Amino acid sequence: MALPENFSEWEHLQDTVRLWHNKAVNKWFKNQPENDISTPKRALRHACTMKDGDTATMTMMRLWLFDVTAGHAQSLQTPIYGIPVQEFQRDSKFKPQIKLYFKESYDFEKHGDGTEQVRGEIGFRIMNKTAETISRADAEQYALEIKNEFTTPPLIWKKGKYKCTYLDLDNGFDLRLLCTSKTEGQSTVQSVLKILDKTFSDNNFQFIENTKEFPVNPGTHRVYGRTVKKFRQRPTADVKFTHAQLLIPGQVKPVNLVSVNGRLRNAIQNVGAV
Q1: pLDDT per residue over 128-151, tens digit each?
Q2: 233: part of which helix (H) or strand (E)?
Q3: Domain map of the chain by residue range?
Q4: Which of 45, 204, 228, 230 is positioned for an S-S bond with 218, CB 3.0–4.6 A?
Q5: At what angle do helices 9-28 and 56-64 cross, to 10 degrees?
Q6: So what's the pLDDT on residue 273?
Q7: Model's pTM, two decimal places?
Q8: Cis-peptide into 153, omega within 30 deg
Q9: DSSP state of 165
Q10: pLDDT per residue over 217-237, tens digit each?
Q11: DSSP string, 3-17
């Protein structure tokens, strides 16, 4: 269908941005009335709210004010329990490690109500390398193997309620994956093994049957005086590979091996849309 006569790209863009931005503003400031600047919070809501007559500069300023200054963007970040890398490495000894990260694609129908996208992580150690012996050439080789196996074509890990384990400590593998089936678990493990050119062994693989129910909607409960959703246990979802990193003991920042859609800066291998 052709665009309507006298269609304005700017008006369409501004209307769309204003619609979704103001929805977030209204939700964020739900306890503050509109069109009121009698208190600091009420004045902040008014300043963050986009108006039809805003210029492009005013639109950007309101976006920045809401997301950065008012703290909305920070609220979107997933809280993480952790410790500074320096403290962990000071007290722990480990071999170089590769981590693969996965995430469910966003679907407004599924996630528009605040339901979190399912994530996945797979890690293993490189037993024949140390911080002293591992090199840039090694990292480039790992990155190429990961790119070939996980992005061309895109690898989708079908997470589910069944646990698959693969134990081969001599080669650095202690994998514990949640999958939809035994076949899916074996396939995902085999893809991981290819990064280090290791052969799959049935003796190292175990599939654990599970008859327990894990409801899609587990219901709600009371927390700190509010009714909140219970966490989903072992959700079923297709998670796509997003990036891979190499962690080296003694080096604070990881080496970015592979990045999909610009997720990481300075990755050895960058891949477009997947």
Answers
A1: 999 999 999 999 999 999 999 999
A2: none
A3: 11-75, 85-271
A4: 230
A5: 30
A6: 53
A7: 0.76
A8: yes
A9: E
A10: 899 999 999 998 898 999 999
A11: PPTT--HHHHHHHHH
Among candidate residues 100, 79, 137, the one with its CA nearest the CA of residue 260? 100
Instruction: Count the helices and strands in the chain (H runs, E runs).
Output: 8, 11
Put residue 197 in one of left, alpha, beta given phi > 0 → left and psi -120 to 50 → alpha.
left
Q: Return the sign of the alpha-carbon dihedral for residues 172, 176, 178, 182.
A: positive
- Joined together, the tokens standing for residue 94 give 């480990």
In eight-state DSSP terms, residue 154 is: B
Among residues 266, 256, 249, 257, the alpha carbon closest in space to that of 129 is found at 249
Per-residue pLDDT of 153-169, as tens digits, reads: 889 999 999 999 999 99
What is the Cα–Cα distance from 259 to 86, expressed in whole angstroms? 25
Could you tell me if 156 and 239 are in contact, meaning their C-beta atoms sit under 8 angstroms apart?
yes
Cα–Cα nearest to 185, from 157, 204, 212: 157
Contacts of 195 (CB under 8 A, 6+ apart): 98, 124, 142, 145, 146, 149
Give the position of tokens 């593998």.
173
The residues facing 220 across adjacent strands are 229
Q: Taking the mean position of all CA atoms in its chain, how far away is CA 154?
A: 16
